[in-house]
Amino acid sequence: MTADSLDAMRTELRGLAEPGIRVQQLRVLRPPEDDELLGVRVPALRRLARAHRDLALEDVEVLLRGRVHEERLAGLLVLAERMRRARGAERATLVDFYLAHTDSVDNWDLVDASAHTVLGPWLVDGPANAPEILDRLAASAWLWDRRIAVVATLALIREGRFEPTLHLVRALCRDPEPLIHKALGWMLREIGRRDAPLLVAFLERHQTELPRVTVRCATELLPADERARFVRTR
């Protein structure tokens, strides 16, 4: 373990804490009671992660296993930085590491900062076991695994590859968790941003199966009259 580098990052992190931001984040994030929240702005965390992007994976693991919220987020952002530069086998190694530590990805902001930037690029590479991994995550009893599966497909959506997302929407449309409903709507909205006719056709087939919040979120960018046609029926 490179203790000096890890200690330096932790020291810098605490120096970025703002009490006023902590109050705001407590209200928005609603972290578990055993979380320590410092109050560090996300842009500052991204800069910190870029500065420490060569942090060893064993040090990233220390960050992820701790109960300081921003340390876990910083560790995930380091993974994203490393994934951005990685290729081939190194990407597979980073994804294996990420999947082995999803129990530490335990809030919506941690998922949304990492799923499409760590798991997503690997999905874009098209490994044969990618559908199996997404299905396994989507079938998990752990809420955050399911959200990871959904949000990770944002990387595919940005490449014009929509079917994995639509598959997960069909699989998770009866999920009991509102945070999954919102993630499904978010991804459908991103599909509609790129192919509105495809989104409309999908909603016409499946709107009665989808949660209300999913439909509302999915149709946010549609013309008002088109959106009203779907929202009114919910």
Tally of alpha and pi helices: 15
Q: Percent range for helical residues?
A: over 70%
In the CATH scheme, the class of the largest domain would be Mainly Alpha
How many extended strands?
0
Rg estimate, integer Å: 19 Å
Shape: globular
Enter the CATH topology name of the largest domain.
Answer: Leucine-rich Repeat Variant
Mean of all residue-level pLDDT scores: 95
What is the number of domains? Answer: 2
Content-based structural category? mainly alpha
Largest sheet: none
Quaternary: single chain
Protein name: DNA alkylation repair protein
InterPro entries: ARM-type_fold, DNA_alkylation
Pfam family, one: DNA_alkylation
Organism: Streptomyces koelreuteriae
Quick gist of this model?
This is DNA alkylation repair protein. This protein starts with a helix and ends with a helix. The protein contains 15 helices and no strands.
What labels would you give this structure?
234 residues; Leucine-rich Repeat Variant; 2 domains; 71% helix
Give structural notes:
- The chain has 234 residues and is mainly α.
- It folds into two domains: 1-85, no CATH class; 105-234, Leucine-rich Repeat Variant.
- It has 15 helices and no strands.
- It has helices at residues 3-15, 19-29, 42-51, 57-65, 69-85, 89-100, 108-125, 130-138, 143-152, 154-157, 163-172, 178-194, 196-206, 212-218, 224-231.
- The radius of gyration is 19 Å and the shape is globular.
- InterPro entries: ARM-type_fold, DNA_alkylation.
- Pfam families: DNA_alkylation (PF08713).
- It comes from Streptomyces koelreuteriae.
